[in-house]
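A.,

Following up on our hallway conversation. Structure tokens first:
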């Protein structure tokens, strides 16, 4: 077996209630590494085009990479066809679960079918059981984890699960691990709920697989850890992550005019300090935390100490809270912790649902939605109580929440009345916490829709090797960038000799284009060609920011079109966003050509 890989995938068929193993395909792994890319390849090979994402045919793949389980690499990918967008569904999760999966002797899990009654999966090394989850259905994510750990009788079992949002098939539902690590965006929890799978508990005792050159691996790791607190890396972000976590970004992004206040109307706001990292640090932080063997630790558990939300506890970070706060103009720290905890406990994507609420607030202000459309809610900007009530309805599919739980792509045509103009989304997935002018073409061209991660070869590599993007700069002294370190670690673990950087960049490009090809095969959300889906809503172009540092910033349509054309060219696509046949051939993606010809991808 190639070093670093466990060498097998666990295959669970929930319809049959059976579990088997299959060898990891090392030829595929050599081309695509693992994690995101390996899982997308499985989805391509094992599902027919056009499946319903909520059907038993959909796959739910959990995938690690060959260095998952080493310091800074506690990540794994969750991949499926998305019920939110109809395209590739992808979420990353940190914490402790992915390393545990590796230590149990698996590179990943492929889940198919649908259980006839609520079930959970318990994996202890080679022993796999599909157990009844009847007593867990309806529980929140923290209640579920506690109950499962008690059930299996092992305090070291690691659990990920869905909450009520996933059970109710909210298309924004996510999968949650240890109460706050969320595999969010694009409806992973909805797919898990459609399979009636409440939780997956794992205990692995086999340790990290054999490494090809363990001495070299440990020399690299020791060097990276020793350098993690160096002045150089502290300046590159480790200090602020250790001290305040990504919540530091609340104020930093506003200072850079990149905030998303009032549904992206403004990039900066005078009251942003109220929700910033320094305030959370002084006022609410109770404990620091980290993913498995992370040398930085960006997690800061926080509690509300007084007022109506007193006692609420959670671990908010920037990516999950910017949409709940800035975008809805809810600039209160206690409200931030409360809304973030509400989303984590009930298992709904805070970014996605924050986008939906902000859209509804703008529609309400403009008279597009009325009080009676919103079940009597006065949905005014900044009202934390109204925001929480609408999120609750979306989680439980109550009243108007039943409509909004289906996500932008499904509910905008039903709402009509020009409401799509205010939906800050691409392909059905709401934008992350950055102004479009600063993220350029990213939200539009991303394979999963308006995700804040850049769909570039470099971010693809992080998600396929499975290292944390917050640790993207981690490296021993003398290394130029994080990828040089992770690439060397990958080579030492596997014994493969990929050249840095070009060998790795090629894999990243291959992965991004495989995702793009999958979306084209699936009809690009019902729109062909891709360039008709790789777009922004008009508001992203027409809005000129007016306040503070953001004054005058804009992202005009013609600038976007030039950026998008450059991206297509750099990725070897034609002007409609379709990868050229010769590009796919040169990347070894020949198998995609046949399927794309069938859907007429190159027919003008
Ligand atoms: S930087 Fe934060 S998210 Fe990344 S591995 Fe460390 S603790 Fe986890």
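Then the amino acids I'd put at each of the 604 positions:
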């Amino acid at each position: 077996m190639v070093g670093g890989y466990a060498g097998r995938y666990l295959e669970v068929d929930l319809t049959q209630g059976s579990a088997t193993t299959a060898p990891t395909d090392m030829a595929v792994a050599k081309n695509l590494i693992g994690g995101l890319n390996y899982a997308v390849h499985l989805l391509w090979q094992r599902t027919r085009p056009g499946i319903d994402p909520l059907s038993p045919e959909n796959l739910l793949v959990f995938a690690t990479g060959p260095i998952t389980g080493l310091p800074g690499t506690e990540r794994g990918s969750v991949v499926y066809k998305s019920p939110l967008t109809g395209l590739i569904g992808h979420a990353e999760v940190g914490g402790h679960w992915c390393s545990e999966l590796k230590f149990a002797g698996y590179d990943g899990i492929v889940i198919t079918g649908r259980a006839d009654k609520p079930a959970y999966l318990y994996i202890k090394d080679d022993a796999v059981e599909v157990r009844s989850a009847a007593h867990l259905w309806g529980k929140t994510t923290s209640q579920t984890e506690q109950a499962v750990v008690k059930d299996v009788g092992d305090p070291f079992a690691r659990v990920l699960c869905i909450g009520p949002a996933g059970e109710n098939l909210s298309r924004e539902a996510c999968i949650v691990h240890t109460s706050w690590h969320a595999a969010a965006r694009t409806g992973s929890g909805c797919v898990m709920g459609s399979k009636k799978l409440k939780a997956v508990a794992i205990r692995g005792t086999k340790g990290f697989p054999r490494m090809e050159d363990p001495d070299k691996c440990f020399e690299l790791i020791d060097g990276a850890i020793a350098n993690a607190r160096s002045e150089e890396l502290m300046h590159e972000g480790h200090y602020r992550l250790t001290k305040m976590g990504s919540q530091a970004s609340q104020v930093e992004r506003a200072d850079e005019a990149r905030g998303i206040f009032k549904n992206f109307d403004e990039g900066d706001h005078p009251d942003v300090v109220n929700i910033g990292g320094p305030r959370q640090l002084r006022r609410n932080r109770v404990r620091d935390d980290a993913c498995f063997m992370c040398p930085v630790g960006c997690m800061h558990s926080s509690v509300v100490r007084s007022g109506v939300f007193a006692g609420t506890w959670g671990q908010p970070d920037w990516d999950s809270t910017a949409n709940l706060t800035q975008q809805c103009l809810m600039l209160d720290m206690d409200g931030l912790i409360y809304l973030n905890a509400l989303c984590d406990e009930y298992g709904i994507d805070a970014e996605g649902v924050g986008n939906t609420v902000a859209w509804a607030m703008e529609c309400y202000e403009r008279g597009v939605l009325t009080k009676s459309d919103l079940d009597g809610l006065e949905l005014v900007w900044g009202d934390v109580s109204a925001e929480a009530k609408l999120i609750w309805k979306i989680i439980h599919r109550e009243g108007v929440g039943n409509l909004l739980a289906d996500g932008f792509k499904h509910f905008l045509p039903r709402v009509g009345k020009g409401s799509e103009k205010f939906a800050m989304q691409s392909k059905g997935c709401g934008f992350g916490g950055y102004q479009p002018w600063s993220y350029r073409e990213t939200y539009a061209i991303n394979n999963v829709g308006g995700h804040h991660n850049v769909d570039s070869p470099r971010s693809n590599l992080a998600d396929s090797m499975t290292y944390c993007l917050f640790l993207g700069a981690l490296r021993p002294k003398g290394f130029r960038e994080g990828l040089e370190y992770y690439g060397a670690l990958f080579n030492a673990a596997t014994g493969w000799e990929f050249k840095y950087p070009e060998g790795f960049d090629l894999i990243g490009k291959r992965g991004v284009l495989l995702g793009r090809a999958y979306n084209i095969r699936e009809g690009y959300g019902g729109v062909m060609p891709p360039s008709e889906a790789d777009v922004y809503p008009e508001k992203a172009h027409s809005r000129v920011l007016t306040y503070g540092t953001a004054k005058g910033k804009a992202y005009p349509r013609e600038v976007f079109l030039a950026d998008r054309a450059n991206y297509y060219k750099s990725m070897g696509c034609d002007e409609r966003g379709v990868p050229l046949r010769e590009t796919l051939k040169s990347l070894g993606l020949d198998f995609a050509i046949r399927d794309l010809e069938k859907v007429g991808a190159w027919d003008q």
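The chain has a mean pLDDT of 96. Curious whether your intuition agrees with the design.

B.
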